[in-house]
Design brief:
Layout: H1 2-27, E1 32-38, H2 45-52, E2 58-63, H3 70-74, E3 80-84, H4 92-101, E4 110-114, E5 118-121, H5 125-134, E6 139-147, E7 168-170, E8 185-186, E9 211-221, H6 228-240, H7 244-248, H8 259-271, H9 276-282
Parallel strand pairs: 1-2, 1-4, 2-3, 6-9
Antiparallel strand pairs: 4-8, 5-9, 6-7
Helix pairs in contact: 6-8
Length: 285
């Protein structure tokens, strides 16, 4: 009788202990580091930071000489570190070099390598990343929605940017995996090198990519999408800041399109737009 009672007590203890371990593992906070670039991004920073706050443990911002208050704004957050670098204008080769190496000296469960106007939204991100870890996936694939709104909404405390906008289009931005976005989130413990091309439109992860495509995580590209006039003006400003190396190699040549062509392009995006908020609601997340 005593022996069977002993077994029953220990079995109950074991079940309780295993349940605790399971719940602990599934409620623990992951360390997710973010690496991005900055040059005079003050007009979008308040929107961007609201997304980062939701999942980023530490953000490393490589700033290329901002003069519009971006550095001062970023430094008010103790979890954001600003790292200066300097090139003669926008140099995509240097940017690719930074993105391919910036994360290799740090330890995290996952990292996000992106441009300042590239955002991640999900109510289930940590669960999705835990699923990736449990099943040995090392790169996250997502749908990619670019903004093509009529206007720039005023910043609203407690509202995310996509909740303030109603026009997005599916942007084919991944050259090797059509209909997916850039591979921004990955496991640095299972990836030695991402092999990003200029612009990160191509990635060649090593030693081997095991891709998990989630329908619960959304990539959002601001992409100068605050109206036709904003789009044209932003492209002109970026064209004026292109490096000689970019120009000589035809990188970002579209920044030099005239206003008429830019307007035509933007209106074509709007003609095929969707409302991301409706998509998120339909999926119940």
């Amino acid at each position: 009788m005593t022996f069977f009672f002993f077994l029953q007590v220990n079995q109950t203890f074991l079940i309780v202990w295993l349940t605790f371990l399971y719940l602990y593992r599934n409620t623990m906070n992951m360390k997710i580091d973010l690496y991005t670039l900055c040059y005079n991004e003050m007009d979008i920073l308040p929107f961007v930071i609201d997304y980062w706050k939701r999942f980023v443990s530490k953000a490393y911002v490589f700033d290329n000489g901002s003069t519009d208050g971006s550095i001062e704004y970023l430094k008010q957050y103790d979890w954001i570190e600003v790292i200066p670098f300097k090139t003669e204008g926008q140099n995509d080769y240097v940017q690719a070099l930074i993105k391919n190496n910036c994360w290799k000296s740090f330890k995290a469960d996952f990292v996000c390598v992106c441009d300042m106007d590239e955002l991640i939204y999900s109510e289930d991100l940590e669960k999705e990343l835990q699923y990736m870890k449990d099943n040995c996936y090392n790169v996250l694939g997502t749908k990619w929605y670019a903004l093509c709104n009529d206007t720039k909404p005023p910043y609203t405390e407690g509202k995310l940017l996509h909740e303030l906008c109603d026009k997005f289009y599916m942007q084919d931005i991944n050259r090797t995996h059509p209909h997916l976005g850039k591979f921004m989130i990955f496991d640095p413990n299972r990836i030695r090198d991402m092999g990003y091309s200029v612009g990160c439109h191509i990635a060649n992860p090593k030693p081997l990519m095991k891709l998990y495509v989630s329908d619960k995580v959304y990539s959002i590209h601001i992409n100068k999408g605050f109206g036709v006039d904003y789009f044209c003006a932003k492209r002109k400003k970026m064209n004026d800041n292109l490096s000689t190396e970019n120009k000589n190699n035809g990188l970002c040549f579209e920044y030099g399109f005239g206003d008429e062509r830019n307007k035509e392009e933007y209106l074509s995006y709007q003609a095929n737009c969707v409302n991301l908020n409706d998509i998120i609601k339909r999926k119940g997340r």
